Amino acid sequence: QVQLVESGGGSVQAGGSLRLSCAASGYTYGIYIMGWFRQAPGKEREGVAAIYPGDGRTYYADSVKGRFTISHDNAKNTLYLQMDSLKPEDTAMYYCAVGRRIGGSWYQREKYNYWGQGTQVTVSS
After folding, report:
1. C-alpha distances in angstroms, 26 versus 10, 23, 32, 88, 114?
2. Are the CB atoms for 40 and 90 separated by under 8 Å?
3. Cα torsion angle, 63, 21, 14, 38, sign
4. C-alpha separations of 53 from 70, 73, 100, 124 in Å
5. Mean pLDDT per segment of 10 residues, for the chain of length 125 residues?
6. How far apart are CA 48 and CA 72, in angstroms?
7. If both were cysteines, with which of 9, 25, 63, 77 could 119 make a disulfide (CB 3.0 to 4.6 Å apart)?
């Protein structure tokens, strides 16, 4: 089992920045992919960004490219999402997730085995 705890959410004005953190604990051996998803009210959960810790490959949704940066600290077993130039449409609950499944696309929820409880991000105009 892997436990994931997100932090760093909050309220910010458009154009501002936030940094989300996700601390992983438990049996973290063999994690193949780590990602961030978000879900706005009335919408489906969507992939925001992902990283493959083994080789550092990163992927981003088109809507956040150039504004968000995903990173991972192996020593701390912590995943980060730096969010800059935030927009009101970025308002959502943000979830981190990790998986051991090989194959599939980074934005597919089925690829991830474990999920955090989420942290709320609210961006006002």
Report:
1. 27, 10, 15, 35, 11
2. no
3. positive
4. 11, 9, 11, 33
5. 95 98 90 96 96 94 98 94 98 96 90 96 97
6. 15
7. 9
